Amino acid sequence: MKETDFTLTLSEQTGAVDATLLRPTGATAVLVLAHGAGAGYRHAHMQQLAESFAAQGLATLRFNFPYMQAGKPRTDNLAVCIECFAAAIKAARQKVRGLPVLLGGHSFGGRMASHYLAETGDTRVKGLICCSFPLHNPGKPETKRADHLGRISQPMLFLSGSRDAMAQATLLEPLISGIDHASLHWLDTGDHGFKILKRSRQSAEDIHSESARVALDWLSRNVQET
Predict the structure, then answer these.
(1) Is the model's pTM score more than 0.85?
(2) Would you say domain 2-222 falls under CATH 3.40.50.1820?
């Protein structure tokens, strides 16, 4: 596999951010993969996700949101995030021509990816993969953050840890089951950051590898090649 670093150019007002493309030989699709609120695209969890996806033949394009690039604590607003996804999708289509483009991310990144699709209806994007979708704040169960999901027409996959304090099962399961083109996979003993309980986890498979394997199976059944 080949990893290529580059600069993702945004508007003059927003500036530019660092990005990287990890492309395995014989890639079948490319996933624009956005980071969570607290760590950038180079975080170990994001790197593990990208490498696991690559092992399954899925290329990834990762980037920093502007707030992370500038070292600011507050996340960017939706308009800036939409601008970032638009630029990242353009770059993905230029660098990996002829492959289906998917959108997704971890936590905040996945949530913003879903908002991008709900707001723009971008038909160039063939599917959405959300890792640890942050349905609610810890200890404050509600579903308002998912109100927009019904406006997304593309197939959606949600990969959620069974110990995720930001995605209560009794709320997430009926929500996803109520959307015909959405799928949910529980990652046994995983928390919001994909950390597991080794002693009680029933599977010996690495949680990142499991996520990538499930994503590839979902991709083969739900996403058509361009």
Answers:
(1) yes
(2) yes
